[in-house]
Write a structure and sequence with these properties.
Largest sheet: 5 strands, parallel
Oligomer: single chain
Order of helices and strands: EHEHHEHEHEHHHHHHHHHHHHHHHHHH
CATH superfamily of the largest domain: DNA Cyclobutane Dipyrimidine Photolyase, subunit A, domain 3
Bound molecules: flavin-adenine dinucleotide
CATH class of the largest domain: Mainly Alpha
CATH topology of the largest domain: DNA Cyclobutane Dipyrimidine Photolyase, subunit A, domain 3
Length: about 500
């Protein structure tokens, strides 16, 4: 007999609930623990997983394989082309190794939940057991509801309930130990699995060498790196988080989203590490920077709860898999159904200018070049470019959502959908539709010296003073033109009026 842990987006061995439970089961039964991870190119395609993210996951698997091998536990990784075949492949694997217990952490996306349900059915039919655990959120979805028993659709009261729930159930923040070592005889039974190699990144997701090199140095993989990052941030910068989190030129945030998305860091560990620096165990008291950082980490839980409560938001991305200018709007569902009727523009040249960072709005272009280069974009800039796409260009927000998933190394369906819904005003607890960011004011406020723009838009690097925010409108036109920087593709005031009319007409308001 043997116990199998199925790794998914929980790519760490410390503080991994299902892995720990699997290890306990194996220890009690005196049988080996085996770990498996399935790489499915078709799954990556269906979920728009970016090459940067796939590459990060494969690099992480190497770290896990090594760490598990030190505990005499094998990690077996196999490529299965068709995603529908994954459950059957896992069952076959269990049969090959005489395993009858499967453990996994739950993923809340609709496809994944369906797959998990299928897995449970298959296990039951074979007389195997399958145990699935809540692990990715600090507070499991379904645990919080309003006084009248409804789901929260507004962040602030949800957050109050989230904090109260964690205070009341403090064990939610406890860490799970790494798995116990396989005893020597158990190790011998599964010895051949140690020799299996981890497959390479699938062809459809391979990064060009130059990009791979850059991303490897920017985003080292694995849980040790994740803990180092969060500890360093909490030691050095969390105290100033409130004042500095909105300045993209400054490293004021933790840069751990890639780790939370891949599961190389647990949300529990992030919060524990921050709490340990505070003067109090309360999450909503003490040092301001710590409080506000914890409330940001909680946004991640919030959007996962939203996905579980209203899974129809997922259909948005599943049906948007069509060419940029032929999205079938009727099948796409924003959180707010009344926002389904907005007449979006599908102006291909505007969309391409946005994707390529050539809109003539320096802050927007800097941000779009950052995502293309780093697989990451600062949160303030994510809001600026999302608002610009949906409101200034009036382009269907789902095209932006998709572009982000295809490029982000930290792409996470729930947070991305939530962020786009917020910025385009069609989502849960959104920015009101009439609040339209002025890119110039955002630029002056959050990149006052233009350092972020100069870093990412080298054509403008020599432009001095405030002209950096709007070279054509502020006396640096000759210089900008000479450097090949484009003129603004829209006039903000006109596009603002156009967006207000389109939103009002779409939602049937005067
Ligand atoms: P920090 O400020 O240090 O925050 C710590 C952690 O808290 C983050 O790593 C993240 O896990 C969580 N967090 C912070 N802000 C948010 C937020 N607004 N929503 C959800 N979680 C948050 N985040 C993703 O992880 N994946 C995405 O695909 C994603 N897409 C986004 C799209 C848009 C349009 C917007 C506006 C936001 C999106 N975010 C996404 C949220 C946020 O921008 C990133 O989590 C953040 O920039 C990551 O940087 P950090 O780790 O330095 O964050």
């Amino acid at each position: 007999d043997a116990v199998v842990h199925w790794f998914k987006m929980d790519l760490r061995i410390t503080d991994n609930r299902a892995l720990w439970e699997a290890s306990e089961k194996a220890r009690e039964a005196g049988v080996p623990l085996i770990c498996i991870y399935i790489v499915s190119p078709q799954d990556f395609e269906a979920h728009l997983t970016s090459p940067a993210r796939v590459d990060f996951m494969i690099r992480t698997l190497h770290v896990i394989k090594k760490d598990l091998a030190a505990l005499d536990i094998p990690l077996y990784v196999e490529e299965v082309e068709k995603r529908k075949e994954i459950p059957n492949r896992i069952i076959d694997f269990m049969e090959e190794w005489g395993a009858s217990h499967l453990f996994a952490n739950m993923e809340y996306e609709v496809d994944e939940l369906r797959r998990e349900a299928k897995m449970v059915r298959l296990c039951t039919a074979r007389g195997f057991s399958m145990d699935v655990f809540h692990d990715t959120c600090v507070v499991p979805p379904g645990a919080l509801h309003t006084g009248s028993g409804k789901q929260y659709a507004v962040y602030t009261p949800w957050y109050r309930a989230w904090v109260a729930h964690v205070h009341k159930n403090s064990e939610l923040l406890n860490a799970f130990e790494p798995p116990s070592r396989n005893p020597p005889d158990a190790r011998d039974k599964v010895a051949t699995l140690f020799d299996c190699d981890i497959p390479d990144v699938p062809e459809n997701k391979k990064l060009p060498d130059e990009d791979a090199k850059r991303l490897h140095s920017l985003w080292p993989a694995g849980e040790h790196e994740a803990m180092d990052r969060v500890e360093k941030f909490c030691e050095e910068r969390i105290g100033q988080y409130t004042e500095r989190r909105n300045i993209p030129a400054y490293a004021g945030t933790a840069s751990i989203s890639v780790h939370l998305a891949a599961g190389t860091l647990s949300a529990r560990a992030a919060i524990r590490t921050a709490r340990a620096r505070n003067k109090t165990k309360k999450l909503d008291a003490g040092i301001q920077g710590i409080q506000s950082w914890i409330s940001e980490v909680a946004w991640r839980d919030f959007y996962k709860h939203v996905l579980v409560n209203w899974p129809y938001i997922w259909y948005a991305i599943s049906y948007s898999a069509c060419p940029h200018n032929s999205i079938s709007v009727n099948t796409l569902l924003p959180f707010k159904p009344e926002y389904s009727n907005i007449e979006w523009s599908y102006n291909a040249s505007h969309f391409v200018a946005w994707c390529e960072g050539r809109t003539g709005f320096p802050i927007v272009d800097a941000a779009m070049r950052q995502i293309r280069s780093m697989g990451y974009m600062h949160n303030r800039c994510r809001m600026i470019v999302a608002s610009f796409l949906a409101k200034d260009l009036l382009i269907d927000w789902r095209m932006g959502e998709r572009f982000f998933m295809e490029h982000l190394i930290d792409g996470d369906f729930a947070s991305n959908n939530g962020g786009w819904g917020f910025s385009s005003s069609v989502g849960v607890d959104p920015q009101p539709y009439f609040r339209i960011f002025n890119p110039l004011l955002q630029s002056e406020k959050f990149d006052p010296d233009g350092d972020y723009i100069r870093k990412w838009v080298p054509e403008l690097a020599e432009i001095k003073g405030k002209a950096i925010h709007d070279p054509y409108g502020r006396g640096a036109a000759v210089q900008a033109k000479k450097a090949g920087y484009p003129k603004p593709i829209v006039d903000h005031k006109e596009s603002r009026d156009r967006a207000l009319s389109a939103y009002k007409a779409g939602i049937g308001r005067d």
